[in-house]
Design a protein that fits this description.
By secondary structure, the protein is α+β, with helices and mostly antiparallel strands. The protein has 2 domains: 277 residues, ATPase, nucleotide binding domain (Nucleotidyltransferase, domain 5); 164 residues, Nucleotidyltransferase, domain 5 (2-Layer Sandwich), CATH 3.30.420.40. It contains 18 helices and 24 strands.
């Protein structure tokens, strides 16, 4: 049998990634095309869906040119994408306004309203097993109704970012169960829209797109798109999944006890579940998985690698110059300073709440801070504290996940996983072995090719598909490092609660 090929497409926050992979999982071509993010007001985050589409077209052309495979041998395409974004569509499926993104914080009033209207948090959880978080799509729909009634009146339906790209490729609308789970209006236990909560909100059920399992056939590439991109007309397109879920599949995370830790712009911890589990107090986000009959527990800290990038841009300009002059990566230079400090950063503690926080504190008022600065504090201490603070925020989620199954090991990915120092911090702070996995750097796009491969019959299911993923590095905890981390973590856990009144006062004052 001749080689078969798959395409994975990930509509991220900073750019669209396209990869072309053979039926053994080898990445033959990869392309990332960037696009802008707009912040018209503080706390707002928007993008133009047309920018996504043009980036995808460029990316698809690039990988087809680079791989030089026979397009007729490509058997499937699937999708990953930033979750929770609202793409509001009119009756002709035209985009009504810029998409409101996952990191947008404008909807707190609407989230509070639906929680109260539902009968309180416990009652809300009974409908969806999730809070209505400010990042979720549902609050954005309510905000549109409250603040832009003219646009709301035009909206006939909505989709999430990757679903819009799939619509442009196939002409068919829909959403998959993992992205639907992140709207706040989806009954994750029964894998259906919550008619009860939709009615309580006073919304028309007709605006909610039909939800499908990730591996289902969604449609086929149209003749117009084939001409524009070089893809074969009629190529099968599968529903795919939200990036927070599908990227864990791409890292090999399908069984309870294995934790996926991602340090990207945001940070998250996730665990595959083989049965439905309740979500006490709504501390986590509970999504339907890309595997039918499976679920995913997920917790997100909003500014993980984003905190380190902010620190690089604002406080490490000298390191940037040093890196340029020496031909090194600026993060390597920063890491060399962090290595001059010690575990626990000599008592300096950083809280990474630069855009508010989601888990375990769903609080848009939370703010970042450095605690423990003294006259003896060094640049190395401060640099290390940023890395440690992000890891402490992830440890809180790791500990919560331990309530579902005993934590056995960590598969880490994202930009933070490229640092051996940061991998060692994870192993020491989590007290678990930490692994990087092959192709994890491809993120959600690699999970998408697995979904496409199952849909196309290359693999029987996602569990079988993950056998193509192999460990690349292993990092074991160093016992002598752990006492210092444990002491500093105790301080970290107290800081949010101690500063909560200050956060709220600052918000009242407009900061």
């Amino acid at each position: 049998m001749s080689k078969r090929y798959l395409i994975g497409l990930d509509v991220g926050t900073s750019g669209a990634k396209c990869i072309l992979v053979d039926d053994e999982g080898t990445v033959l071509a990869s392309s990332t095309q960037e696009y802008p993010l707009y912040t018209p007001k503080p706390g707002w985050a928007e993008q133009d869906p047309e920018d996504w589409w043009q980036a995808c077209v460029r990316g698809l052309k690039a990988i087809l040119a680079k791989a030089a495979v026979n397009p007729a041998d490509i058997v499937g395409v699937s999708y990953s994408g930033q979750m929770h974004g609202l793409v509001a569509l009119d009756g002709d499926c035209n985009v009504i306004r810029p998409s409101i993104l996952w990191c947008d914080q404008r909807t707190q009033a609407q989230c509070d309203w639906i929680t109260e209207k539902a009968g309180g948090l416990e009652k809300l959880l009974s409908y969806t097993n999730n809070r209505m978080l400010t990042g979720y799509t549902g609050g954005k729909i309510l905000w549109l109704r409250d603040e832009e009634p003219e646009n709301f009146a035009k909206m006939v339906t909505f989709v999430c970012p990757k679903d819009y790209i799939r619509y442009r490729m196939t002409g068919t609308l829909g959403i998959d169960v993992s992205d639907a789970s992140g709207t706040g209006f989806y009954d994750t236990k029964n894998r259906r829209w919550s008619d009860e909560l939709i009615a309580i909100a006073g919304l028309d059920k007709a605006i909610f797109p039909e939800a499908h399992e990730s591996i289902e056939l969604a449609g086929r590439v149209t003749a117009a798109v084939a001409a524009e991109t070089g893809l074969p007309e009629g190529l099968a397109c599968y529903y795919g999944g939200g990036d927070a879920v599908i990227q864990t599949v791409g890292a090999g995370l399908v069984k309870p006890g294995i934790l996926g830790v991602v340090i990207g712009t945001s940070g998250n911890v996730s665990m595959g579940l083989d049965r439905y589990q309740p979500n006490p107090n709504g501390d986590l986000q509970m999504f339907c998985s890309n595997e039918p009959g499976a679920w995913m527990a997920f917790g997100c800290t909003l500014t993980a690698g984003g905190s380190y990038r902010w620190y690089r841009d604002e406080l490490c300009k000298a390191e940037g110059i040093e890196a340029k002059e020496s031909g090194r990566n600026v993060y390597d230079v920063m890491g060399s300073y962090a290595e001059q400090s010690v575990p626990g950063a000599n008592g300096v503690v950083f809280t990474p709440y630069l855009t508010g926080e989601r888990c375990p504190y769903p609080d848009p008022n939370a703010r970042g801070s450095f605690y423990g600065l003294t006259l003896s504090t060094t640049k190395g201490d401060i640099t290390r504290s940023v890395m440690e603070g992000v890891t402490y925020s992830l440890k809180q989620l790791v500990d919560i996940m331990g309530g579902f199954a005993e934590n056995e090991k960590v598969y880490t990915s994202g930009g933070g996983s490229a640092s051996a120092l940061w991998r060692q911090m994870q192993a020491d702070i989590f007290d678990l072995p930490v692994y990087t996995m092959s192709a994890a750097s491809e993120g959600g796009a690699y999970g998408a090719i697995m979904v496409a491969g199952v849909g196309a019959g290359i693999w029987k299911n996602l569990s079988e598909a993950t056998k193509i993923i192999k460990p690349e590095t292993e990092t074991r905890p160093i016992p002598e490092n752990q006492p210092a981390y444990e002491k500093t973590y105790r301080i970290y856990e107290k800081l949010y609660h101690a500063l909560k009144p200050v956060y709220d006062t600052s918000a009242e004052l407009g900061y």
